[in-house]
Amino acid sequence: MSTGVEISKRVEGRARWVLDMLGAGHLRLAQDIPFRPEAWDQVERGELPQGDDLAAAFFHLARIEERDAPRDPHGRFFASSSCLDPLDPPLERLRRELGSPTPRYGDATFAVALTHDVDVPWRWTRIGMRGAAARLKGHALAGRVGPALHEARGLARVPRHKLRGSDPNWRFAEIVAEERGHGARSTFFVMAGHGHRADGAAPESYERLRPKLVETLVEAGAEVGLHGSYLAAEDLDRLARERALRAQLDGPLVGHRYHYLRVDPHRNLVPLERIGFRYDTSLGFPDALGFRAGIAHPYRVWDPERDQPSDLMEVPLAVMDATLAEERYEGLSAAAARPRVLALLDWAAEHGGGFSILWHPERFDAPSARGWDRLYFEVMDAVRERGGVCMSAGELAAAAAERLGLPGS
Q1: What is the distance between the alpha carbons of residues 317 and 293, in angstroms, rounded to a whole number?
Q2: Is 321 within 8 Å of 363 (Cβ atoms)?
Q3: What is the pLDDT of residue 130?
Q4: How far is CA 312 from the centre of its chain?
Q5: Strand partners, 388
């Protein structure tokens, strides 16, 4: 063990942050844990340290590999570009090696935050029907029988919805009630701005429905956060305006997730705290399940400008329905996705965890959900059966902030 070695305040602060996040704040670098200066020099150069788990943990948790990394056309960092295995988070291995106790959530060994991004609150707008018809034609011409039938069946149900004044996407009260029946509460992230076509094809419809949407969710007992719009990821003034607009409907907002998961830990994550958010839950891979920052519990985000921890909590996003279901990612059926999700819950039951899962509300209309609605509620039951607990993202972030001694928690 190295002793009598001078350690810079910069390195000491970085090591202290990692140890605090792992519940090992009583340990000291160069006294209880070996100090290898060359490993921290590698971090400074943007390289993954070799032979030093603590320095490597800072590299992962501060997302050093994302600093100048390639991104997709939407500005997102993919698992395929990462050096870590998202299903074997290195900081959790280090937690065990240090003998640090795994965080618990009440009597539960792990916690899952249930979240929903409200991208399209009403499916059958005029432009929504035109889009479905175009997809039907495209599938038919390409000989994709299954997807074509799916679109055709959806369009066939439009007259019934028109007659009833209903919509397959507007199932918010039902979703919340079903979750409550399972003893859980969830978070819905609602948009408050549309400045890009990726924000949705019917912005006027969303704007008209937003007050009723928020009212419905609040009355049902859900937590409501902000779903920062596509361009807000590049314009924090825009994001602040969106937050102020949303807050007019039901008061202060504490939770956030970027649309399209357009989060960059070196650019647009820490500023969320200055805008007024207490937590974010955008940090997940669009193309894979698992833990993008190499940790399975909420943590205080590192501020790369100040070179110190911020007061913003990040709740890791470990599972997204779109990752599993959409052809541009894994393209699985709900039945094929089931063992993948349950395997992650098995891991959490063994090693602990506190993370979010994301299921979009449009996957809860039974006639068109193709089993994704059933899988979601099966996942809730599986969490409980494995000794875990389901809660809202805000509840999970608050529990973690209190455990970590965050000011004001």
Answers
A1: 10
A2: yes
A3: 86
A4: 14
A5: 110
